[in-house]
Design goal:
Blueprint: H1 4-26, H2 34-56, H3 62-90, H4 97-119, H5 126-155, H6 161-186, H7 193-214
Helix pairs in contact: 1-2, 1-7, 2-3, 3-4, 3-5, 3-6, 4-5, 5-6, 6-7
Length: 231
C-alpha cells in the first residue's frame, strides 16, 4: 500500500514535470530542447495514467504491473533520446549529426537485443521482465554516455551554462538510478529504493525547471570553474 508520503512525492514530481514544460514554453526553449520537453510531458502523462490504473485496480494487480513496467521502459527510451539530443547540441559545430544518430540507434537496438537474450530463458512474465531489463540496461548505457559527454564538454571547453546544467543533472539522475538498480541486484532485500526512487525522480525535473527559469540561453560559464583540465 502507498502511504501519504508516497502520494505527496508522486504529486510533487508530477507538478515539477509539468513545470518544466511550462517554463520551457515561457522562455521560448521548448523547440530547442524538444526531446527533453517531450520526455517531461510524457512523464507527466504517465504519472496521471499510473494513478488512474492504481485507483481502478490495485498496486499489486497485473494491470498496474504491466502499465508500470511498459511505461517505465518507454520513458527510459525517451530519456535516452533526450540525452542524444544533448550530444547534438555539444557537437553542433562539428557536423557529425548523422554519425551520432547512427551510433544512438545501434546502441538502442543492441541494448534491446541484449535485454531480450537475458530474459528469454525466464519462465513466465517474460514481457514485464524484458521491460524491466531494458530500462535497467538503458540506465547503465545512459550513465556511460553522460560521462563521455561530460568529458567532451571539458575537452571542447563548452561554455553554455544551461547546456552544462542539463548534462550535469542528467549525469546525477542516471548515476542515482544505476546505483539503485545495482543495489537491488546485489541485495534482494534492499528496500531503500522504495523511498530513493521517487525522491530521485523529483530531482531531474527540479534541475531542468531551474535551468529554464534561472539560466539564460546566452549565459556562459568558465570551464576552469567546473574542473581542472590539463593543458
Amino acid at each position: 500500500m502507498l502511504g501519504s508520503f508516497d502520494y505527496l512525492v508522486w504529486l510533487l514530481g508530477s507538478l515539477l514535470e509539468l513545470a518544466v514544460v511550462v517554463c520551457a514554453i515561457r522562455r521560448k526553449s521548448f523547440r530547442r530542447y524538444l526531446c527533453l520537453n517531450l520526455y517531461m510531458l510524457l512523464s507527466f502523462l504517465v504519472s496521471v495514467g499510473r494513478y488512474e490504473v492504481l485507483a481502478k485496480y490495485s498496486l499489486t494487480s497485473p494491470q498496474y504491473r504491466y502499465f508500470y513496467y511498459y511505461s517505465d521502459a518507454l520513458l527510459t527510451v525517451f530519456l535516452y533520446l533526450a540525452l542524444i539530443t544533448l550530444y547534438l547540441h555539444v557537437f553542433d559545430e562539428m557536423k557529425v549529426e548523422s554519425y551520432l544518430r547512427l551510433v544512438a540507434v545501434l546502441l538502442l537496438a543492441g541494448t534491446a537485443v541484449f535485454s531480450y537474450l537475458v530474459v528469454q530463458q525466464s519462465a513466465g512474465r517474460i514481457a514485464t521482465r524484458f521491460a524491466y531489463e531494458m530500462s535497467q540496461n538503458l540506465y547503465f548505457v545512459g550513465l556511460v554516455l553522460t560521462y563521455v559527454l561530460w568529458a567532451a564538454i571539458l575537452k571542447l571547453r563548452e561554455t553554455r551554462a544551461r547546456l552544462i546544467q542539463l548534462v550535469l543533472s542528467m549525469g546525477i539522475y542516471f548515476s542515482a538510478f544505476a546505483a539503485t538498480f545495482a543495489l537491488q541486484n546485489m541485495f534482494a532485500q534492499f528496500r531503500m529504493s522504495t523511498y530513493i526512487v521517487p525522491i530521485v525522480g523529483c530531482l531531474l525535473p527540479l534541475a531542468w525547471a531551474y535551468s529554464f527559469t534561472r539560466i539564460d540561453e546566452d549565459a556562459r560559464i568558465v570551464p576552469a570553474r567546473l574542473a581542472v583540465v590539463p593543458r
